[in-house]
Amino acid sequence: MLELAILGFLYDAPLHGYELRKRIASLTGHVRPVAESTLYPTIKRLERAGFLVRATEPGAVAAPRHVLSLTEEGGSELRRRLAEPAPQDITDENRWFTVLAFLRHLDDAAAQVAVLRRRLAFLEEPASFFYDGERPLAAEELDDPFRRGVLTVARATSRAELAWLRDTLTSLDG
């Protein structure tokens, strides 16, 4: 997810590390904070792979800063990852939001539709956070108001996403 976010934000515009970190934090929020000890090794790994280049620019007040730009290979890698998201990129909500945030960079509408259809198929599968043996429990079956709240919020979120997915697929298919 972090690599995809880095590639996606740099596809939009060259950024220095601090600004990139702020944008990733805005996307992932409190759920997955990005530490410098995670971000900078990931940037170096993407640089070694030829997906990013670093240029030094004079700082506004202090030391020079390093600005990161996406290479042509980096753009290709971003589009490949968007067209072929890993299963956990479809099923994990936070990873899915990262894919969705940059899916517009995938120029092929048919490929965009294929990714959205994978998410739709996942959401249409019956699921729950709580089970009675193998049977998923509905919110109405729970005595615990907090677990009922988890399922109520999740169901509302899923309904909204399903409606959005169906509308978007209709518009992209048409």
How would you describe what is shown here?
A hairpin with a 2-residue loop joins strand 4 and strand 5 (135-136). The chain is built from 8 helices and 5 strands. It is mainly α. Helix 1 crosses helix 2 and helix 1 (2-12) runs parallel beside helix 6 (93-102). The chain has helices spanning 2-12, 17-28, 36-48, 72-83, 87-91, 93-102, 109-124, 145-173, and strands at residues 15-16, 52-57, 65-70, 131-132, 135-136. The strands form 2 sheets. It has a 3-stranded antiparallel beta sheet with strand order 1-3-2. It has one domain (2-125): Arc Repressor Mutant, subunit A (Orthogonal Bundle). Helix content is 62%, strand content 10%.
Q: Could you give the order of the helices and strands?
A: HEHHEEHHHHEEH
**Rg measurement, Å:** 20 Å
Shape: globular
What is the arithmetic mean of pLDDT? Answer: 89
Mind telling me the CATH superfamily name? Winged helix-like DNA-binding domain superfamily/Winged helix DNA-binding domain
CATH topology: Arc Repressor Mutant, subunit A
What's the total helix number? 8
Strand order of the largest sheet: 1-3-2
Class derived from helix and strand content: mainly alpha
- Please indicate the percent range of residues in DSSP E strands (runs of 2 or more): 5-15%
Helix content: 55-70%
Biggest sheet layout: 3 strands, antiparallel
Summed up, the domain count is: 1
Which stretches are low in confidence, meaning pLDDT under 50 for 5 or more residues running? none
Count of β-strands? 5
User: What is the highest CATH level, the class?
Assistant: Mainly Alpha
Q: Oligomeric form of this entry?
A: single chain
- CATH architectural label: Orthogonal Bundle
Distance from first to last alpha carbon: 31 Å
